[in-house]
Task: structure prediction
Amino acid sequence: MKKKKLHKLPQSVVNQIAAGEVVEKPASVVKELVDNAIDAQASKIEVRIKNGGIDMIEVADNGFGIPKEELPFIFDAHTTSKIEKIEDLNTLVSMGFRGEALSAITSVARVNVSSKYVEEEIGNEIDFDEKGKSSVKKTAKEEGTTVRVENLFYNIPARKKHLKTPQTEYRKIFELMNNYYLIYPNIHFILEKDGKVVLDLPVVENSKKGDITEERVGEIMNEKASNFLRVYYEGAGVKISGYVAHPSNHKNVGSKNYMFVNNRPIWDKGIYRAVHEGFSRYIPHGQKIDFAIKIDMDPQFVDVNVHPRKEEVRFENPYRVYSAIEDAVRHTLEKELSFKDTPSKEERNVKDFSSLRQRFNKASTTSSNRAGRGEESGKVYESRNLYSSARSTSVKDSLLFSKEILSSQIKEEDDQQKDLPWEEKMNIRDIFQIFNKYIVIEFTDEKLWVIDQHAAAERINFEKLSKGKNGLDLQNYLVPVEIERTREEAIFLDEVKDFFGNIGIIYEINGNKLILKTVPTALSKSNFEEMFNEIFSLEDNINDLKKNLEKRRDDLLATVSCHASIRSGQKLSKEEMLNLLRELSACDNPYSCPHGRPAVWKLTLSQIDSNFERTY
Ligand code: ADP
Ligand code: MG
Result:
């Protein structure tokens, strides 16, 4: 084979090679053009796509336009009005910044630009292709800039062949645009596909760049906006904001996830994981959640230029960012779900509370110092009312009521009040079990609850265990229970004795044997063999389990509490059912079991009536 002579590549080929980095697919062209429109301070951007962008991409904006004398040069490589020196890259706020987008595009497609600069009277246009540019011609144009890109890769058949089907390329454009809709609620976007308007998103009133709004989230996720919970956190140099789906809307597959750093769309697995970690107590393991989360931080601590298409980031301190996200999400769920049921936002429960209050006060009329106490309870009530009037009717509201008013208040009650059966104070009319699996409770105030007895028991035990052994009821075995483990497991269990001791599982290790001496009473009849099997299967191997023991504490407690709990299939006495209800009502999160399954299903008589299309 003969060596080829050393030669300099023609500029057009250099450009085409460089273009490969920027222009990989139609969506990358759309991205560059929309970025430019945003940089030109447009408040309305129309994107028109033909045949998946392969035949045509047109982006029209109402931004400040391009001066006539600059028009011929915007497509030269490394021509930009946005940066001057390399340091600018670190602090740059504009979207595009390499000054090479347009030049790259012109080397692989035919381009027409028409623009009217704000300070000029008339608009101008110019054509570009790989061979060069036309002269500047006058054109009728009201405002802004329109860039039309046609016949993508017409001059590079090999690249053109590698494009996916028009549908797929269109889908990528559609997905890309979603990011813009989220970050720019202050921009009116219109998306047109093959001559038809697909989306027309007017400006969200009173919004500004970077505000993730409920309106746009709802549009993009194709869900009711009110199905989302707002996430907000600020501190330690990061600000986290956005929306996550209500846990009841978890999905098997196909969740929609949007992430931004300093308003740039990115994809980062750590962020994805952190959001789902935050959800881990609320949705079943492995389920997925829609979210749109934004991180704002000092640009010094994050590198968004890792990837030529700016899709990835490198955080200087990823752990801090991830844990902030996880905390923010968890905090939102705790706050929202503790007091609020599913969507019915406007529904108020003032009525429910006032009827309970009446009953409560009626009970206290028998008291000797009635005036004082009546006032007292009224006050507590008032504040609950204030609070709940802004919130919805929910299991937790009623449970909170019972927890706060019935337990803390009743402590100070006189004897007569104390003698009132607890279930009467809860307004329970009837309680019974069905299928040895669910507890059904009929309340006098036209409510019906169905409780999953196992899920509820798990929740109760989980919360007890979480609080450590001091609050636990312990039981010593007269004859210790012995469990055989592998050598490796026995060594591990010996090392983490204190960890288990703290949740009331007290044992000694003798060779490969675990000798169980004391356990929480709720656990006394458990199958420990199975329980430890499950604990060891939490991680792939013992080293990981050891390393992550503290991090996996909740999972471990969930596993243990599952074994400690009333099972489904178990017949319960009325006493046991009432106990379960009473304990559940004292939980911080009675909403779900520690694995995220719901524990309580609440119905009202009017819901049941409406199911039978009864209007009276
Ligand atoms: P960059 O955006 O990195 O500066 P581009 O190649 O994308 O590089 O654009 C080159 C220049 O063309 C920009 O700096 C800007 O001055 C001008 N320009 C491109 N598109 C627009 C637009 N839609 N409105 C106003 N000016 C534009
Ligand atoms: Mg640009």
Observations:
- Residues 377-616 form a domain with the formyl-coa transferase, domain 3 fold (CATH 3.30.1540.20).
- The pocket of adenosine-5'-diphosphate (ligand 1) is lined by residues 32, 36-37, 40, 61, 63, 65-66, 74, 79-82, 96-103, 145 (CB under 6 Å).
